[in-house]
Amino acid sequence: MVERERATHLPYQRVKDTESLPSPKGVAFEILRLTSDERTTLPQLASIVKRDPATTARLLKFVNSPFAGVARRITSVSQAVVLLGMETVKSITLAFSLVSQLRQGPCAEFDYEAFWSECVARAVAGRRVAHQLKRFNPDEVFTCGLLCQLGRLAFATAYPGSYSYVLEQADADVPGSLLALEHQMFELDHNELAAEMMEDWHLPPVFCEAVRLQDSAGGVEGVFDSPAGELSRVLHLTGVLSALLTNPQVHRETLASVNVEAARLDIMPDVLAEVFDLIAKEWCEMGAIFDVKTRNVPSLGELYPRTAL
Description:
By secondary structure, the chain is mainly α. Helices cover 67% and strands 0% of the residues. Helix 4 crosses helix 6 (86-99), helix 9 (150-158) packs across helix 10 and helix 12 (190-200) packs antiparallel against helix 13 (205-213). The protein is globular, with a radius of gyration of 19 Å.
């Protein structure tokens, strides 16, 4: 453990010293701080939300959306907080805070609109997979899915020129190409950077370790025989699912991969097909709430005949 800290702390500190890393602001930051304290009550949380009209409006929009599944119309923040619970309020306010920031920027090769669309897709997919597995809190996995790629945005923000060069050189058809180039350029990759940022925000260690491991999900068995390891596999699956959602051109390798990754979590193909349809529907619902681009996606069965080589 000492070696890991020695290997990543100084490179992370250099990125942090640019003072340009994405971070929750204002009320979202206060909510993140409050919810890390188990003594915090729901009325205290509601009082913080009420301080900011924009956060209030967004939370009420969410609680009254089909995604939240609340039967009656809610007009009170206090009611919304009680119905949604602390984890959901934290997840949604954090998501709104981050998505509302940096919708565009100076990194020429970084597609900011596509990035947020992918993040929301990963978050929704993670929540739905967690519902299916019944081994993780779905709202916590929503947060984890939303944040797990944040290192890419952080590099684009802190080092727009250098990261644009990295993105130009990366080969999308070679697994690990982007991570290797990031490590060569910055001495850490976007998974490590996201994990360090999440540690700074005092998010649970299991989240941080899962984000660090997410692209190693096919690696040495045994590394994944832990909550963080299993969650890393959930995150890896959300990455493949988000590719099917966001990319109009689907490759056979991607469809094959989604079945392999789902099987690692004991999700069989017939169940996966049902889960995918729910994710596609909920992604569109959340896209409308967060004002990010989505599209209508065919079912898995309909995607197979449309795949490219």
